[in-house]
Design a protein that fits this description.
Blueprint (H helix, E strand, L loop, with lengths): L1 H28 L2 H21 L12 H12 L7 H5 L3 E3 L6 E12 L5 E11 L3 E3 L1 H12 L2 E2 L1 H16 L3 E10 H4 L10 E8 H4 L1 H12 L3
Helix pairs in contact: 2-3, 5-6
Length: 223
């Protein structure tokens, strides 16, 4: 019996992950009725959380909190409602420019998937075109799409680099993220001064140290 219990328990994270992946796609393609039902389910869940915290959801000040929190979470995770292909559209243009293009200091806000507490900061993206470029605002939109999901900074960095590399097809690209994590500042070690830096390089940015150093030097320059 113990073996069966442990075996079932071990399967829970895998099953939950599979269900979550399915749920993401359902949210993107859901109807208005399905969206309304999901929001109502979230509202009920928040009410239960308030009760478990020892609060009275019916008291003045909390009566509308469940629906407010549900709508807030829906907004903060709206990246699940779109795909990178939809976001980027046809914003690609032929160009013979073959020098580095950098968009730096792209602000972002996301939710840590471990505690659902915010982390925020700046993203720097650079690439060297190979016959085509992309509208600069689309890089910021790509950051917004992936940041507005439950995330960890490491995966966010990799996702951005992979999609820039696959969609623009440059000779190379690099992504650096600098962020502050409220799960470290508000709880646990309660360190308010720590910041986290992650980077992912693809193509010539990874293979050629001079290209990588040029990118890192340019995003580090003071304005």
């Amino acid at each position: 019996r113990l073996f069966l219990f442990l075996g079932a328990r071990a399967l829970l994270p895998v099953c939950a992950a599979e269900l979550m992946e399915e749920f993401k796609f359902q949210r993107k393609d859901e109807t208005e009725e399905q969206a309304a039902a999901r929001l109502a389910k979230m509202q009920n869940a928040v009410q239960v959380l308030l009760e478990c915290l020892g609060e009275n959801p019916s008291r003045d000040g909390l009566q509308d909190t469940p629906i407010r929190v549900a709508k807030s979470l829906e907004y903060l995770t709206r990246g699940y409602q779109h795909t990178p292909e939809e976001m980027l559209g046809s914003a690609f243009f032929e160009s013979d420019h073959d020098d580095m293009v950098i968009v730096r200091d792209i602000e972002f806000f996301s939710l840590c998937e471990h505690h659902m507490v915010p982390f925020y900061g700046k993203v720097h993206i650079g690439y060297i075109p190979s016959e085509r470029i992309i509208g600069l605002s689309k890089l910021a939109r790509l950051v917004e799409l992936f940041a507005r999901r439950l995330q960890v900074q490491e995966r966010l960095t990799t996702q951005l680099a992979e999609h820039v590399y696959e969609c623009i097809k440059p000779t190379g690209c690099g992504v650096v993220i600098e962020a502050t994590h409220m799960c470290m500042a508000m709880r646990g070690v309660r360190n308010t001064t720590a910041s986290t830096i992650t980077s992912t390089m693809r193509g010539v940015f990874r293979d050629d140290i001079k290209t990588r150093e040029e990118f890192l030097a340019m995003i580090s320059k003071k304005k």
